[in-house]
Structure formats: structure tokens, C-alpha cells
Specification:
The complex is a heterodimer of chains A (770) and B (68).
Chain A lengths: L2 H10 L7 H5 L6 H9 L3 H11 L3 H7 L3 H5 L11 H12 L15 E5 L3 H12 L3 E5 L7 H4 L8 H13 L3 E3 L6 H10 L2 E4 L35 E3 L2 H4 L5 H20 L40 H8 L9 H5 L1 H5 L4 H13 L8 H4 L7 H5 L6 H14 L5 H15 L5 E3 L9 E4 L2 H6 L1 H14 L4 E5 L4 H5 L3 H17 L4 E4 L2 H8 L7 E3 H8 L14 E4 L8 H14 L3 E3 L15 H4 L1 H12 L6 E3 L2 H9 L4 E3 H6 L12 H19 L14 E3 L1 H9 L4 H12 L4 E3 L6 E5 L5 E9 L2 E10 L2 E2 L4
Parallel strand pairs in A: 1-2, 1-4, 2-3, 4-5, 7-8, 7-9, 9-10, 11-12, 11-13, 13-14, 15-19
Antiparallel strand pairs in A: 6-8, 16-17, 17-18, 18-19
Chain B lengths: L11 E2 L7 E9 L2 E9 L10 H5 L1 H10 L2
Antiparallel strand pairs in B: 2-3
């Protein structure tokens, strides 16, 4: 996989962007996580989230001007969350007085903090917990001298004391009543490795000649690193912001200056990886319209929240997430994360040289339906990611053989002698059109192919040729671009040999395969042709009375003309219909991308969730979609069922299963050749005649064992191959390995027929005695 | 690896008319080989793979090897 493209994909997924509250906070308090705890009544955990970002939590929860509330997206559906009051509730009900812990830095430094205001103490606490020797110098006789003057009304002394207790209890040196002037600063430089200057706005020493100053005589400070013109001196707080500086900006300066000082002491880069430092606008997309409006809850105990009210108010948080794709896709939901993580995981999986490729099945479980990109604010397509990963797996020889072999064998059947066909319209030598019904309509409802081909021949001028085959989509989905391209080249050559007639496809997957070709042939959907040229005469049996919900196939997602034609054809048929959400935004039926061969559990979830969207019978115009709904017990008809009518209830028609699909294709070809072109074909004897109970047949289908596979085993055994006898039942148990899979069948010959009791297979080859 | 032979040891080889016996054999997949004991005809060597093994442990090993 291309690493540059992978990073570009990752960057487009916004789910890991911070929510607006955290992004707008200068020190990125994770209010979303904090409120999630609060909403569950976990006050201690909520407090821990808050205190992780705020070293003086009691004080700041009183003083912060809460820019988070101005950014809160709840405002678009009610009022913004009252995060400020909730922070106070965290402190009131969740506070834990854990002493400051220190880590062990690789290089321990001595740091002088000048000024014991909010900024200075923030830096002091951060550097102390990182393990450095910290000495705080304060000109006044107390810590936080300015805050002590705010008065009980604004900031009760008890609140200040609550935060200062653990500072006093720490091993930090607190040097009160010590003024640091210019002469002292030189002395500090000799004794300390770094200095953080945060004396506030009023009491800053005259620094002229010692540091580069701005026109207001304040040190010039790098806004990213808080470095001054002296490499060991950093500065911030109200010294930088002036008297208007909000307390949270002092916290911000202290925190990020401490980061710089620590990096300087470790010899690390001061500037690396500091994106999104300070307040910024989040790119996280949130569809607020899906949330009903809810007003803010008022404080219920004076101007504060009680625990219960805080919990209720916190529960108003959505919380902010994008997850637009995960919400609509059971596959993306199944793996419990979101595209940015999946993309990284898939790329790592692709990069493994030795070891388990743990994400192979995940890569191969995507339906490649493109719904994720259609609903994503940045069009991130997991289909593109998974398809490229599959191609890479194939290129490296790492594609698990079992994942797509069955589907590719089915495709090979459709490309082979049993099904493939090219003919001009009977009695014609030229074709202005070429009808390509595709492999799955022919497999599901071969009589519809006969009927619609007869109608096209009768309606269109200039001759309608017929081409049977497979467009090769399974090869593309399996990452086999070689097979896909070779197949399309073969089809293109056949089409060219007929003087490039206009192609008509009954399947939107085929339509897309032809359209995606370089120098694509003129190609059109059967449904737009029928809308323009007219429907066949009404069938004798009227369509069943129902108000159908329309399921558009995922491969017609971009084909709005096709979608529109289908709806107008239904109107013309007098069939009531309604939408299943927006036409281009439906989920896959679970067959796309060959997901059902690799991960039947996920594919079934997909089709089941789609089936549950509406109690009405579904109308599909892809044979595979219709059959998949039928397989899962959802009543569904194909558009051709309504056009041609049906004796029995078409919504009850069972999924033919894979064995029947192949038989139907082969029979269709034989009948076409016999009835339209008067060509006899050697009948392919399906011997022995099998008798299979419904439950056994379903079990064989589930295990991807075709009846033809069973026949091969029986033929081999009955023609003298090795076999076993179960003396209790008299049944024969035999195996045969035609290629890469060993098939085992238990059977008995009864009245000339072969009764099949069970079958199973394995890919391991049983060898000789070691 | 010891394998539960299932009903394998009461099966008869149709050609040799002999009951199968547990015997060491090698199973191979994707270039890897594993010794196992499986019910086997003592004369012709035809070896039975019980369904539980094929769809259980053997499938697990196949999948693990495919993801190597």
C-alpha cells in the first residue's frame, strides 16, 4: 500500500479530532470525557479527567471564563452545556486529595520559578511531577497573593487552600518574601538549569539589558515555546498577557512553558509535535440535527449544582462524535472502532513481513459498497482502502486462499463453456445492441432473461445480440486485477467483433464495470432502456398488490438516472412504492465485495439490518440483492417479477443457492441455443442423480460445497476410488480432492439414486506416514 | 498431536475390508507439515479425517497459516 495515500486517508477521517469544548480550551480539558463520567454519577473519575488538565482544580473551577461553553455544539440543539458549573460539581463531589507524585526523568534539572501566581504554580507543579528539583520564589509573603485579594465572595479562602495543601506538602522549595531582581536573576542562572519568569504584571523586575523586551518593556516571548532571548529563561503568565489575561491563559502559559523547560533539560526539540497547542477550531464533524433540543438545567443549590442536578445536566452532552459511517455500516460497527484506526490497522497489517496478519479478515469483510464515503463529510472511502489492501495482499502472495476461491470458481464457471455465449439476434447478422444480462440474473431467474431478451428483440431496431458471461466484478472485489482486466478484455474483444454495438446491462454491477473501462463502450442500464422504449405488454397475472419499499443496489449508488427510471417504471406498472431513506444512501445487501464468503456473520448483519428498516415487501432490481433478502427470510421481489408477473407469490421465491445458480445458468444457455438458434448442445449429464434433504442442502451451501463437488466425490468412489463403510448404517464415506480442497461425503446408493447424508471439506492435505 | 478419532475406528476400508486403526500421518498446508494420529487403513493407507477435526482444529490451523 502507498504510505502517502494511507496518511492522506487517515488525515481525512475526523473522528479523532477533539470535540469543540476541548479544542477551544487553552489547556484542552476533555469536557466530553468528564461529562460522560458525570452523567453516570462517577464524580471521582470526572474530577480526575479535569485535574489531569488543571493543576489547580478548585481555583480554576471558580475563576475560568469557560470558552468551552461558547464552543459547545449543544447550543445548536438547546443551550450549551454548563461546563463551568459541572467542573465545580466535579471538584465539590469528586475531589481526591492525592499528594503530588513525581516521575523519574532521564535527566533531572534544577528549575527556579519566579512568581507563585497561577502560571508559576502550574509550571512548578508540572515540572515537580516530572521529577525536577523545583524552587519557587515569591516576593509576597503568601502563595497566590493576588488571588487572596479577590475576597470570599469571588474565591473563598478555603478553595485556595484546597489546591495549595498538596503544594505545601510536596518537596518543592517555597521561598516566600524573596524579591527577584536583576542581580538575583544572574545569581539564579548560576544555581539553576532553567528559570520560568511568571511574576505577574505588577511586580516584574526591570529586565532591560538582560532579555530582549518589547515596547512595553515586557520580555519578548515565543508564543509556542515561551522561550525568551536567553536560552535558559522562559516567561509567561500575566507578565505576557497583562492585567486582562484570563486565569486559564496563565495555566496555559505555565503548562506549555513547563513542557519547554522539560524538553530543554532533556535535550529534546522545543518545537516538535506542538500542533494544536492552545485553543483552536476543531475539525470534528457532528450532525447536531439528529439530537432533539434540550435546555440547560438551572443550578439548584445556590449558584451551583447538587450532585443529582449535575448528573442530569451532564447527560445533556450528545457527546460530540462524527461516526457518520459507523452508524450506517454494520461492518464498520462490528470491529468496534472508526476508519482512522482501521486504516492504520490495515496499513500495519499490510506492512508485516513476519508474523500473523491479524486484519486480513477485516480487510476482506468490507462490502466495498461505498456508503461510508457517501455519508462522510470528507468522503473517506473504506472501500478504496480495503480494495487497495486486497490488491496488495494478492501482489504479495498474502491473500488467504480460502477467502475468495469459491467466488472465483463461480466466476470461472460463468466465463466458461457452460454459460458464456455470444450471438447476433436470431435471423440477423448484425447487432446495433448487445444485451448482457450478467451472471446473477441468469442464475436467479433465467426465465426473466428469456422474456426480457425477447422483448428487447421485438422492440429495438437494428438487431439485439446476446452476450452471456460475467463482468468480472468478483475478481475485482478479490483484489485480482489481473483476472478482472483479462475478463473485461475478453468481453471487449467480443463486443468489438460485433462492430461495437450499444451494450445493455441488467445488472448495475456490470454497468459499472463497463463504465469504468478506459475508452468505455457505449453502455446503458436495462431500466433506462425500458423506460424509453416501453414495457412489454402487461402480463396476464397482475402484480401482487403491495406497497413496495425500494432497495437500490449499492453499485447503482451514483446512477441517479437508473434509480429514477426504476421509480417511473413502477409508476407505469401502477405499483405503489416508497423509499427506504435517500436513494443513494442505502446499505449493501451483504453480497458486495464478496464479504459474505469471508465473513458470513457480518454480511448477515448487514442484510438483516437492511431488511428490518421497513416492514413492507422490498423491491430490488439486482438479482443478488433480491436473493439475499430471500435467503434471510425478507419478502422481496425483483422488478422483472412485476414486469412479467408470476404465477406464485414472487416475494416467496426462495434463494436458489449456489448449486442451483450454476445449474440455472447452464440450463439458460442450453435453452437459448435450442429455442432461439436451433443449436443442439451436448447435454451435460449431472450424474449421479443426487437426493439431498433440505437441511443437508442448506448445510452444504453454508460450507460452500456445491452439488457438483458432491457428485465428483461419489463418482470417484463409485468408480473404484478409496472409500469407507460405516458398518452400523451401511453408509459410504468417501473423499476426493479435485484441486486444493478435499471434499468428504457420506452417502448411500438407494434405488439407483445417491442419497447424501452430509458433506464437509478441508484444505489441508493428508500425507503419508511421517 | 492426538486427535479424537470420532467414529473413525469402527469404519471399514471398503476395498481392504479392514477396520481403520489409529496411525501417525502428516498433514500439510501452505508449506507447513504437522504430525497427527488419524484413523487409517492398515493395508492401503486410506486415511479418514473426521468432520469435527476438519471443521474444528484443522480449520483453525488452516486459517492461522493463511494469515502468516
Amino acid at each position: 500500500m502507498d504510505g502517502t495515500r494511507v496518511r492522506e486517508w487517515e488525515a481525512r477521517c475526523v473522528e479523532e479530532q477533539a470535540p469543540a469544548c476541548a479544542a477551544s480550551c487553552p489547556v484542552h480539558v476533555d469536557a466530553r470525557a468528564m461529562l460522560a463520567h458525570l452523567a453516570q454519577g462517577r464524580f471521582r473519575q470526572a474530577y480526575e479527567v479535569y485535574a489531569r488538565a488543571i493543576p489547580l482544580p478548585s481555583i480554576i473551577s471558580h475563576l475560568c471564563h469557560h470558552p468551552c461553553e461558547s464552543a459547545c455544539l449543544r447550543a445548536q440543539a438547546g443551550d450549551p452545556l454548563r461546563i463551568h458549573l459541572l467542573e465545580r460539581a466535579c471538584v465539590a463531589f469528586g475531589r481526591t486529595d492525592i499528594p503530588l507524585r513525581t516521575q523519574r526523568p532521564s535527566k533531572r534539572g534544577r528549575v527556579a520559578i519566579v512568581g507563585a501566581g497561577i502560571s508559576g504554580l502550574t509550571a512548578a507543579i508540572d515540572l515537580y511531577t516530572k521529577g525536577h528539583d523545583v524552587t519557587v520564589f515569591e516576593a509576597a509573603a503568601a502563595l497566590l497573593p493576588r488571588l487572596c485579594l479577590l475576597g470570599e465572595q469571588t474565591l473563598p479562602a478555603a478553595v485556595i487552600e484546597a489546591d495549595l495543601a498538596r503544594v505545601r506538602e510536596s518537596r518543592m522549595a517555597l521561598r516566600l518574601s524573596e524579591t527577584v531582581d536583576l542581580a538575583r536573576l544572574d545569581g539564579l542562572l548560576a544555581d539553576f538549569d532553567a528559570i520560568y519568569l511568571a511574576p505577574g504584571n505588577g511586580s516584574r523586575p526591570d529586565l532591560a539589558g538582560w532579555l530582549d523586551l518589547d515596547d512595553k518593556q515586557r520580555p519578548i516571548v515565543d508564543p509556542l515555546t515561551f522561550a525568551t532571548s536567553h536560552p535558559a529563561v522562559f516567561a509567561g503568565g500575566r507578565l505576557r498577557h497583562g492585567d486582562d489575561g484570563a486565569p486559564i491563559l496563565s495555566v496555559h502559559d505555565g503548562r506549555y512553558a513547563a513542557l519547554s523547560i522539560d524538553r530543554a533539560l532533556q535535550g529534546a526539540s522545543l518545537t516538535a509535535n506542538r500542533d494544536n497547542q492552545g485553543a483552536y477550531a476543531s475539525r470534528l464533524y457532528v450532525d447536531t440535527s439528529r439530537h432533539p433540543a434540550a435546555p440547560a438545567l438551572p443550578p439548584d443549590i445556590g449558584d451551583a449544582y447538587g450532585a443529582e442536578q449535575a448528573q442530569k445536566e451532564a447527560a445533556r452532552c450528545f457527546p460530540c462524535h462524527c461516526l457518520e459511517c459507523v452508524r450506517v455500516c454494520p461492518y464498520l460497527e462490528h470491529y468496534g472502532s472508526h476508519p482512522k484506526r482501521y486504516i492504520r490497522e490495515i496499513y500495519n497489517n499490510d506492512s508485516i513481513v513476519m508474523g500473523q496478519h491479524k486484519s486480513n479478515r477485516m480487510v476482506d469483510s468490507c462490502m466495498l459498497c461505498g456508503l461510508c464515503a457517501a455519508v462522510c463529510p470528507n468522503q473517506v472511502s473504506m472501500a478504496d482502502v480495503c480494495l487497495e489492501a486486497r490488491q496488495s495482499m494478492v501482489d504479495k502472495g498474502k491473500m488467504p486462499p480460502s477467502h475468495h476461491e469459491f467466488a472465483l470458481r463461480d466466476m470461472a464457471f460463468s466465463q466458461g463453456e457452460a454459460f458464456a455465449l455470444l450471438r447476433h439476434q436470431p435471423g440477423r447478422r448484425q447487432s446495433r445492441y448487445l444485451f448482457f444480462p450478467g451472471c446473477q440474473l441468469s442464475a436467479s431467474a433465467p426465465q426473466h432473461v428469456l422474456q426480457i431478451y425477447a422483448h428487447l428483440c421485438a422492440t429495438l431496431e437494428g438487431g439485439v445480440g446476446l452476450m452471456l458471461g460475467c463482468c468480472g466484478a468478483p475478481a475485482r472485489w478479490a483484489g485480482r486485477e489481473d483476472l478482472f482486466a483479462a475478463n473485461l478484455e475478453n468481453l471487449r474483444a467480443q463486443w468489438a467483433s460485433f462492430d461495437q454495438p450499444r451494450l445493455i446491462t441488467a445488472c448495475s454491477t456490470c454497468l459499472r464495470a463497463f463504465k469504468d473501462l478506459d475508452a468505455a463502450p457505449a453502455v446503458e442500464s436495462l431500466w433506462t432502456v425500458l423506460e424509453r422504449e416501453g414495457l412489454p405488454p402487461r402480463a396476464a397475472s397482475a402484480p401482487p398488490v403491495s406497497d413496495y419499499a425500494i432497495h437500490d443496489p449499492c453499485t447503482a449508488r451514483q446512477e441517479t438516472a437508473v434509480q429514477d427510471s426504476v421509480r417511473r417504471l413502477l409508476d407505469r406498472l401502477g405499483v405503489a412504492h416508497h423509499e427506504l431513506g435517500a436513494p443513494g444512501l442505502g446499505t449493501c445487501c451483504g453480497f458486495g465485495g464478496l464479504a459474505s464468503f469471508v465473513n458470513p456473520e457480518v454480511a448477515d448483519k448487514v442484510v438483516d439490518r437492511r431488511a428490518d428498516e421497513d416492514p413492507a415487501d422490498y423491491l430490488a432490481y439486482c438479482a443478488m440483492c433480491r436473493d439475499n433478502f430471500a435467503r434471510r427470510g425478507k419478502r422481496a421481489v425483483h422488478l422483472l417479477d412485476l414486469i412479467f408477473g408470476a404465477a406464485a407469490d414472487p416475494a416467496e421465491r426462495a434463494d436458489p443457492g449456489f448449486s442451483r445458480r450454476q445449474e440455472n445458468r447452464a440450463r439458460l444457455k442450453t435453452e437459448l441455443l435450442r429455442d432461439l438458434w436451433q443449436e443442439a448442445t451436448p447435454t451435460r449429464a449431472a450424474r449421479p442423480d443426487l437426493s439431498i434433504a433440505d437441511d443437508v442442502r442448506a448445510d452444504l451451501e453454508r460450507k460452500w460445497i456445491l452439488e457438483e463437488d458432491v457428485r465428483q466425490v461419489v463418482r470417484h468412489a463409485e468408480n473404484g476410488g478409496a472409500r469407507l463403510i460405516d458398518p452400523d448404517s451401511g453408509h459410504v464415506i468417501a473423499s476426493y480432492r479435485p484441486a486444493a480442497i478435499t471434499y468428504w461425503v457420506e452417502y448411500a446408493i438407494e434405488d439407483g439414486r445417491c442419497v447424501v447424508y452430509r458433506g464437509y471439506s478441508h484444505r489441508m492435505e493428508v500425507g503419508d506416514t511421517p | 498431536m492426538k486427535i479424537d478419532p470420532g467414529n473413525g475406528l469402527k469404519l471399514l476400508c471398503a476395498q481392504c475390508r479392514l477396520p481403520l486403526v489409529s496411525a501417525p500421518v502428516t498433514v500439510r498446508y501452505l508449506g507447513q507439515a504437522f504430525p497427527v494420529e488419524l484413523p487409517r487403513c492398515p493395508q492401503c493407507g486410506y486415511t479418514y479425517v473426521p468432520e469435527d477435526l476438519a471443521t474444528g482444529k484443522m480449520l483453525q490451523v488452516e486459517q492461522a497459516l493463511e494469515d502468516k
